[in-house]
UniProtKB/TrEMBL annotation:
<keyword id="KW-0560">Oxidoreductase</keyword>
<dbReference type="Pfam" id="PF03712">
    <property type="entry name" value="Cu2_monoox_C"/>
</dbReference>
<dbReference type="InterPro" id="IPR014784">
    <property type="entry name" value="Cu2_ascorb_mOase-like_C"/>
</dbReference>
<dbReference type="GO" id="GO:0004500">
    <property type="term" value="F:dopamine beta-monooxygenase activity"/>
</dbReference>
<dbReference type="InterPro" id="IPR000945">
    <property type="entry name" value="DBH-like"/>
</dbReference>
<keyword id="KW-0732">Signal</keyword>
<feature type="domain" description="Copper type II ascorbate-dependent monooxygenase C-terminal">
    <location>
        <begin position="291"/>
        <end position="420"/>
    </location>
</feature>
<dbReference type="GO" id="GO:0005507">
    <property type="term" value="F:copper ion binding"/>
</dbReference>
<dbReference type="GO" id="GO:0004504">
    <property type="term" value="F:peptidylglycine monooxygenase activity"/>
</dbReference>
<protein>
    <submittedName>
        <fullName>Peptidylglycine alpha-amidating monooxygenase</fullName>
        <ecNumber>1.14.17.3</ecNumber>
    </submittedName>
</protein>
<dbReference type="InterPro" id="IPR036939">
    <property type="entry name" value="Cu2_ascorb_mOase_N_sf"/>
</dbReference>
<dbReference type="Pfam" id="PF01082">
    <property type="entry name" value="Cu2_monooxygen"/>
</dbReference>
<feature type="signal peptide">
    <location>
        <begin position="1"/>
        <end position="21"/>
    </location>
</feature>
<feature type="domain" description="Copper type II ascorbate-dependent monooxygenase N-terminal">
    <location>
        <begin position="168"/>
        <end position="269"/>
    </location>
</feature>
<keyword id="KW-0503">Monooxygenase</keyword>
<keyword id="KW-0325">Glycoprotein</keyword>
<dbReference type="InterPro" id="IPR024548">
    <property type="entry name" value="Cu2_monoox_C"/>
</dbReference>
Amino acid sequence: MNRSRYLFSALSFLSALVVVACSDAEKGSSGSSGSGPENGNAEALPCDVDKILSTKCQTCHGASPKFGAPFPLVDRSDLVAPAVSDPNKKVYELVAARARDTARPMPPPPTEPLTAAELAIFDQWIAAGMPAGKDTCVDPGGGGTIDPPTLSCTPDVLLAPSAPYVMPKDVQDQYMCYGVDVEIGQKRHLVGIVPRIDNSTIVHHILLFKADEASPSTPTPCNGGDIMGPLLAVWAPGGKATELPLEAGFPLEGTAHFTIQVHYSNIKGLDGQQDSTGFDVCTTTELRPNDAGIFALGTEDINIPPHGSLDVSCDYQFPRDMGAISVISVMPHMHTLGKHLSSNTVPTDGSEPSNLGLADPWNFDNQIWYDNDTILRGGDTVRTRCAWDNPGNRAVEFGERTQDEMCYNFVMYYPSQELESKVEDLTSPTEDVSCVTTK
Ligand code: HEC
């Protein structure tokens, strides 16, 4: 099998996180209950503004911020405070900007962005000079909680570290990895995956890989070069559980190796934070009719000139004798210079192309499996296009470090075939993939 050495290596994820050293914006956490304002309270927000923050923001920016959010957004004073990432700006100015930022939106995906009506309420409040609220808000406020997603199956396997990760208070941002080996014996199907979040104050997002070999069971800093195997599940706050359709399951046999990667964020420098986050998994001996698989489309032939851009499209034609395959979901993957990734069929009969993934603009902070129900048939051609801009004065090539670049579109599908990597490979060119650079 011509499997790319890097293909399923540690996917670099969010490591360019903007770090906001932020202790003095902390004030809102004392004295603010997050509940509706009282008459004459200068800290109170008008109820329409309060409602937006409590429903869309305080799941993370609550009185005790969660999932790596740097400060509370509970009281008026939280919004008029100077922003720590840019002391020349006030927090409300950053809120207005990030709520409209398509590349790094707040709230972050998969949570829905603010609606035009919500943005207008916020803009009008700023234009009016950010008056304090006068009424007691009916809305309970205080921020909803992000309910952990649920599965329709009953988990029978817990993937957790053998000891908790203890986060040093002077580490702001850290990717930790650990392995779990599960004795499966006779073939089983893995059919559902849901995260089990332990310490939501510091967990930013988590990934589950099926691995080729065992790795340490205690959390150790992830090594970007580790080969991890196919990425089975990704979770960020607000995300869903992963459930395979009834027609398919991921085959497991003998000893199954898994690697879990947890991204931690402790921007506020809290002391003594510990975490044992992992995944609950459903496996079954009642085998589904099909094995599920994952393959990748794209290219590793990447070289983006300094102060320049690159736009590459690669075509792959499925073997003519291949039976139909059903796509379950797709996950585009690039690094921080990516601008666009799209993947679609190229019909020859004049019919509409089917979308197999679109990330435009590409958002490095939003790497999830998107549901997709395309049927692919033998002889079909799929075109995967990646585009980058490189503002730096050094050429950027393919590689696994965050400062390198990638162009993969992962496709989860059934029934499993010998497809694995349909990526233009630098070292051993794949005959059935052909790429053109359009700019
Ligand atoms: C799922 C958790 C989550 C939700 C929901 C969320 N945020 Fe954030 N927010 C974060 C994290 C994590 C950061 C720090 C990383 C970053 O800047 O992207 C952040 C950073 C920010 C910043 C940048 C601060 C700075 O100094 O640069 C602003 C402004 C912000 N959030 C506003 C909002 C607003 C307004 C909402 C609701 C409309 C919201 N956020 C909803 C997690 C969240």
